[in-house]
Structures are given as structure tokens and as C-alpha cells.
Write a structure and sequence with these properties.
Elements (H helix, E strand, L loop, with lengths): L1 H9 L22 E4 L2 E2 H4 L4 E9 L2 E9 L5 E10 L5 E9 L8 E5 L1 E6 L5 E6 L11 E6 L12 E4 L13 E7 L3 E9 L4 E8 L26 E8 L3 E2 L6 E3 L2 E8 L2 H16 L12 E4 L3 E2 L3 E2 L8 H10 L4 E4 L36 H9 L3 E6 L3 E2 L4 H5 L13 E2 L5 H18 L3 E4 L6 H6 L5 E2 L1 H20 L4 E4 L17 E2 L9 H11 L9 E3 L11 H7 L6 E5 L11 H14 L6 E4 L10 E8 L4 E8 L7 E4 L9 E6 L5 E5 H5 L2 E4 L5 E9 L3
Parallel strand pairs: 19-22, 19-31, 22-23, 23-26, 26-28, 28-29, 30-31
Antiparallel strand pairs: 1-2, 1-7, 3-4, 4-5, 5-6, 6-17, 6-18, 7-16, 8-15, 9-10, 9-12, 11-14, 12-13, 13-18, 14-15, 16-27, 20-21, 24-25, 32-33, 33-34, 34-39, 35-38, 36-37, 36-39
Helix pairs in contact: 7-9
């Protein structure tokens, strides 16, 4: 990709597009677009000053192209990065007004606008559902872009992807893979890094108008076809709405773009994205890329001075030794730890109504949170705490004292704190950082429970549409970065009513993510979340809620099936383990979690779906996690509750046919040594009853 970047910066254009080989696949025209002063960038930019800067180091090369309008001082900076260890290109497009006056109108900014060559075959777009609160979260989706541009299929020849309400994965995922058949299978994986309201469009069009007279197809045609009139693929992405002027000296950024071109194998390309995210995007933890976590979330603190545990006669302090006995690394207190206003007459009490307060709720924690945090540390764990700083409810401290720091338009259950105001952001950073310091917090949980888009857009003037969202998102990134800088070693967990903000830019500031608010603990749903989400993201970003059915009250087939459904993600010991009729066997739970710990490093490796994605309780579901760097992996197979077939045959991927592998089956603890070619020929799994599961762990023997 370094060569492609150089050709773009050099202005080589599109002369080779459609010719054979790699250079005929990707256009080398500028891969972004905008309209400025009612003129298209394609028309304007050839007349702008062009400068290039380059740098290299740490396994990456950066080439930045700066284009400046000589008449108004508008400056466009396209900074692209290529990597030694991964065939990806990443870029960030920004605009700056270097002039003394307001710019002309800047609109329809597309941080990605790339043209590629294709042929007459249908194009397949692979994409997915975001982390919404349903069993179908992360469901894989496929959309065909037809090959013919006739009137009847014209509208079906474009796919639009976008979230709902301003959170980046609240609906569509900002990750997709376009597969073409152009001299063999090839395609391009794209990721959009913007934690607000992005939009992507994938479409195809003709390089030339259709012929007035179609060729005579009664004889062989090597160059022409009656259907070969959709020879170009266009991929666009950016903020959904931009229509603004820039003041003198003002700068804005746009969504980050990551592209991974590929040939031959779509799933390998998506694994390249997983590796890129794990190695180059995720923040380090103790100097290494993060692994799926083992932690306990004690649930929401009820504003009537009762937590989930207190309803069973427990206290938070009393829970600490029980959680520690399980062998987890962190204990996290969720929402409701702060002062909560009394409910309105006849209305319900809610933890949500206290968001905007940062004083501790004294009736639950009379001495503050420090005694609980100290007890957690005394038992060898680290303490974590939930925050939702982006929303503020009426009557809270922030609402009373800093009403001018909130966006004017209300949203459901409150107002939005304006992260675009530097003085407001500084106060908030100091306030939360002070709590982290005073309590001794090692795990910061950031939730976001509102659709921000209406508040952003209502704050914009006619000639500044999009600026509130831009400043808000820029400020949010600065806030997260400042917390990480002030508290080295802290683990950042993301949440946005579950996994509704899991774009590639948000993941830069989070080690892990609470990926869905689907709280049922349903094993089949958990399996499907891992199976669907694994197509795009490594396992450290799937913090898996454990329902009561997975509580280790007894070492039964059904309970092990429920517990090990979370393999592929992280393990959250939820409060519901302790709300079962029978108390959990802490030693048994410790053994299960230790087994999970021994396998979790595989969940950040390559992912291969060995059976089609399904939510059906009448089917098997199976997948493979593979670490080529270690010669190690695992195969997970689940025979669901109403599946009538006791046997399934699976074909694993990517094993060395000549190598010898030590293979262990979890259910029987049977160990065998097999050649890779034997495993590649197929693995049969037989489970007598349902529901049941099997974990096959393999490790290459080193000579």
C-alpha cells in the first residue's frame, strides 16, 4: 500500500484503472472529495498548491499531501500511513483555514471516495448489525450489487450504511468488505473511524455510457459483453451531514479511514482487519496488546439504597471475598453509586436520574468508595467504576451549576454535556480524574445512553451544519486520551447502551467493550454474538454477560454449555450468579474461569466461521480461532437446545498439513497427536444430548 499512497500523492490519477494487475484495480486519484464554494473538489484541486511530507519509523511510513487554495487559504491535509507488518492503509483528512477571513461554504465532505475497477459479475458486500440490545446483535449481512444498470435495478445498485441517532454502531457496523470477481476473487475491507453519525455508500457505475447498439453475441466476444456496463465500483464514507464555513485559523478533522485490499480469500482479509485492530489500534495493557478480561460487575446500585445484592441480604463489602475466590482480576461497581434525586410523586426511582452528580451516595457507601476499593485491592483485585459523563439530568450538580455547558435541546432522560467546550471538558476531566485518584480506580467504565444527533444538529446554525458534532467528537477523543495519559495502566471499558459505539476510532481509547445490553444471558444469543462479531473485531472487545444459567452451582452439561458459550470474548461474572436459588460453588467457578484464562489468548487470533451464522435453537454453530504465530487454536462447537442431529463434521482452516498437532477434547479430556492433513480432512464431533458443547484445543508440536 505504500506504493499506492506515493502514486496518489504524486498525482498519477486514474490512467491505469481497468488495466490488468494490481495497478489497474485501485484508482490513484485522490481518494476523498468535497464541495467548496459550490464547486467539486475534483475540479478545484488541480489548481491548488501541492506539498508533500514524509516520515518513517516504528514499522510504518507516513506520507502527507497538503493542498492549499491560493485565493482563500483553505488547506486540505491528507495524512496516510502504511505498515510493514499488515497490508493496510490508514488515513485522516483534515481542513484548516489559513486565511484571515471566513472560508467559502465547505460541504458534502467524503473522507473516503475511492473508485475501483470491476467487471460484469455481481458485487457482494459483506457487512453487519451493530451491538444493539437483541439476540441478533452483530448478525452478518450480505448485499448484492447487481451487474446491470437498467431502470429496474438502478436503485438496488447502491448500498447505504449508517447508524441511528449519532452512536456509531447503533444499527449498522462501520466495517464492510466488498467482494468482486475481477480476474479471480478480490476485494477491499473498509473501516470508518467516527464515533458519531457516519455514512457509507457502496455503488457501481459505468465507465462509459451503454452502447447504442449492443455487440453481436452470436460470436465469441473477448472484450465486450451486453452486460458489461457497470465496470466501476465506488466506495464513499464520511460524516452524514457537513455544510459549513470555517473561521480564520479554524481546523476540523473528518472520520478516519482504514482500507485493506485483498486477493483470493475474503475471510483472511477480515482477519487482517482483526489483527490490525488488535496490534495497531487497541491501547496497550502492561506494554502488550490486550487480552479478553476476567472481571466481575456487581450491577447497578438501586437509588433506594438497595443494590442487587442487598436484596439478598448482601453488601458490596461482603461480596469482595466471594468474587476474589473466583480468581478474577477486577471488581467493577456499575451505575447508581452517586447521589440520586428522590423520585417524582408516584414515579419510579431510577439510577438514571442521578447522572450529572459526582458525590457518592451516602446511604449505600457512608464512608465513600475508598473502603470498598481498599478491600478489593486487599484481596488481590483492582477496583472499577462506571461513569456516564455525556448525559446530565435535571436537578443534578452539573445541571444546577453549569447549565451553560449543556447543549440546549434536551434528549430522552436529560441533556447532553458539550464536549466541544474546552473549559467544560477541562472541568469534567479534572473531576473524574480526581475520583480515579482519590478512590484508586484501575478500571474506568464509560457508558453513553442517549442518541446525541438531535441535540448536535439543533445547536448548528445554517452555515455551520455539522460543526457541533465535529467539535463534540474531537473533544470526546481528547477527554479519553487525557484520562489515559494521567492514569497510565488504567483499563478503559467502553459501553454505549451496550455496543452502540464500537467504531475503529473509539476502540483506540478502549481496551475492552461491553458489547450488548442483551441481558438475558441466553447461551445461544451469546454464541451468535461471538460468531457474528468475530468477523470484524478481536475478542477483547466482547465483554460477555453471564446470566444465572451459567452459574457454577453444579458441574452439569447444561451449566458448562452456558458458561463456555462466552469463549471468543471476555468473561463477566455478573451479580446473577449470586441470585440463583442455589449459591455458586466458588471452587468450581474458579476452575471454569481458570480454563477460560488458559484459552483466552486464542480469541484475539484469526477467526473462521465453520458453520453458517444462525440464531436457531435447532442448529449447530461452530467456529475456529487460530493463532498462526503460536501454531495454536481452538474449535468451538455448540449443539443447541432443539438440534436433532447429534453429529457434525467440521473443516478447520489454516493448519500445516505436514505438522503434528496435539489435540485435546474438553468433554472427554482425550488427547491425540494428529497430522495437520488429518485435521484438515475433517473433524467429527458427536454430542449425545442437547444442549451441549465441545472445545477442541490444538497446539503444533515443535520439532
Amino acid at each position: 500500500m505504500a506504493r499506492w499512497i506515493e502514486r496518489v500523492c504524486a498525482g498519477e490519477g486514474t490512467a491505469r484503472l481497468g488495466s490488468g494487475g494490481e495497478e489497474g484495480w485501485l484508482s490513484c486519484a485522490l481518494p476523498f472529495s468535497f464541495r467548496y464554494g459550490e464547486r467539486e473538489s475534483e475540479e478545484l484541486l488541480p489548481g491548488w498548491r501541492r506539498t508533500i511530507r514524509r516520515s518513517a519509523g516504528n514499522g510504518r511510513t507516513v506520507c502527507a499531501l497538503v493542498l492549499t487554495d491560493p485565493s482563500t487559504g483553505m488547506e486540505v491535509d491528507w495524512e496516510a500511513t502504511s505498515y510493514v507488518d499488515v497490508p493496510a492503509v490508514e488515513w485522516l483528512l483534515s481542513f484548516r483555514n489559513t486565511g484571515a477571513n471566513d472560508t467559502s461554504l465547505l460541504e458534502d465532505i467524503r473522507a473516503l471516495n475511492l473508485v475501483l475497477a470491476t467487471d460484469y459479475h455481481e458485487l457482494m458486500v459483506y457487512h453487519g448489525m451493530g451491538g444493539i440490545a437483541t439476540a441478533g446483535a452483530f448478525e452478518p449481512r450480505q448485499t448484492i450489487l447487481p451487474r446491470h444498470l437498467g431502470e429496474r435495478v438502478l436503485e438496488r445498485n447502491q448500498l447505504r450504511l449508517a447508524p441511528v441517532g449519532g452512536r456509531s454502531t447503533n444499527g449498522d457496523m462501520p466495517y464492510f468488505n466488498v467482494e468482486a470477481n475481477w480476474g479471480g476473487y478480490r476485494g477491499i475491507v473498509a473501516a470508518v473511524g467516527w464515533s458519531g453519525q457516519w455514512e457509507a455508500r457502496i455503488s457501481r457505475f459505468g465507465a462509459a455510457p451503454p452502447l447504442a447498439v449492443e455487440p453481436d453475441n452470436r460470436i465469441p466476444q473477448t472484450q465486450l459483453s451486453a452486460l458489461r456496463n457497470a465496470t466501476r465500483l465506488r466506495i464513499e464514507a464520511g460524516m452524514e451531514q457537513t455544510h459549513l464555513i470555517l473561521h480564520a485559523g479554524e481546523r476540523i478533522r473528518t472520520p478516519r479511514i482504514v482500507l485493506i485490499p485483498w486477493v483470493d480469500d475474503r475471510q483472511r482479509a477480515q482477519n487482517t482487519l482483526r489483527r490490525f485492530i488488535h496490534q495497531h489500534v487497541a491501547p496497550r495493557e502492561n506494554g502488550a496488546a490486550p487480552l479478553p478480561q476476567l472481571f466481575s460487575n456487581l450491577g447497578i446500585v438501586d437509588p433506594t439504597a438497595r443494590s442487587h445484592f442487598l436484596a439478598l441480604g448482601e453488601t458490596h463489602l461482603a461480596m469482595v471475598p466471594k468474587i476474589a475466590a473466583l480468581g478474577v482480576d477486577y471488581l467493577v461497581v456499575d451505575a447508581g453509586w452517586y447521589e440520586t434525586p428522590p423520585p417524582a410523586p408516584g414515579g419510579p426511582a431510577s439510577w438514571s436520574s442521578g447522572v450529572g452528580n459526582y458525590a457518592v451516595q451516602k446511604d449505600v457507601f457512608p464512608n465513600g468508595l475508598r473502603p470498598l476499593a481498599d478491600e478489593v485491592r486487599r484481596h488481590g483485585m483492582k477496583f472499577g467504576l462506571w461513569f456516564e459523563p455525556e448525559r446530565v439530568c435535571e436537578g443534578t450538580q452539573v445541571f444546577r451549576e453549569h447549565r451553560d455547558w449543556l447543549l440546549p435541546a434536551p434528549v430522552a432522560r436529560g441533556y447532553i454535556f458539550d464536549f466541544g467546550l474546552p473549559e467544560a471538558r477541562a472541568w469534567l476531566t479534572d473531576t473524574i480524574s480526581g475520583i480515579i485518584e482519590d478512590v484508586g480506580i484501575g478500571w474506568y467504565r464509560h457508558d453513553a445512553n442517549a442518541n446525541y444527533l438531535p441535540a448536535w444538529r439543533s445547536a448548528d446554525s445554517v452555515d455551520r451544519q455539522g460543526i457541533t458534532e465535529i467539535r463534540y467528537i474531537e473533544g470526546l477523543y481528547q477527554f479519553w486520551q487525557e484520562l489515559m495519559d494521567r492514569h497510565p495502566g488504567i483499563v478503559m471499558e467502553g459501553c454505549a447502551s451496550g455496543g452502540r459505539r464500537m467504531d475503529i476510532e473509539a476502540l483506540r481509547y478502549h481496551h475492552s467493550y461491553f458489547h450488548t445490553d442483551w441481558f438475558s444471558g441466553d447461551p445461544a444469543a451469546i454464541q451468535s454474538h461471538m460468531h457474528g462479531g468475530g468477523h470484524w473485531l478481536p475478542g477483547n472487545y466482547f465483554n460477555t454477560y453471564q446470566g444465572g444459567t451459567s452459574s457454577p452451582t453444579v458441574d452439569s452439561r447444561e451449566r458448562r454449555y452456558a458458561f463456555f458459550s462466552m469463549l471468543g470474548g471476555a468473561a463477566i461474572v455478573s451479580w446473577r450468579w449470586f441470585n440463583e436459588k442455589e449459591p455458586p460453588d466458588l471452587e468450581l467457578g474458579r476452575r471454569w474461569l481458570a480454563e477460560f484464562r488458559s484459552l483466552r489468548h486464542l480469541a484475539v487470533g484469526d477467526f473462521y466461521p465453520l458453520l453458517p451464522h444462525t440464531l436457531s435453537e435447532g442448529q449447530w454453530l461452530a467456529s475456529q480461532y487460530h493463532r498462526p504465530d503460536l501454531g495454536e487454536g481452538m474449535i468451538l462447537a455448540f449443539r443447541r437446545q432443539f438440534c436433532p442431529r447429534p453429529t457434525v463434521r467440521l473443516l478447520p482452516r489454516e493448519l500445516d498439513p505436514k505438522a503434528i498437532y496435539r489435540v485435546t477434547r474438553q468433554t472427554s479430556q482425550e488427547q491425540r497427536e494428529l497430522r495437520g492433513r488429518e485435521l484438515l480432512a475433517g473433524i467429527e464431533i458427536h454430542l449425545d444430548a442437547a444442549p451441549a458443547h465441545e472445545v477442541i484445543h490444538y497446539h503444533q508440536r515443535r520439532e
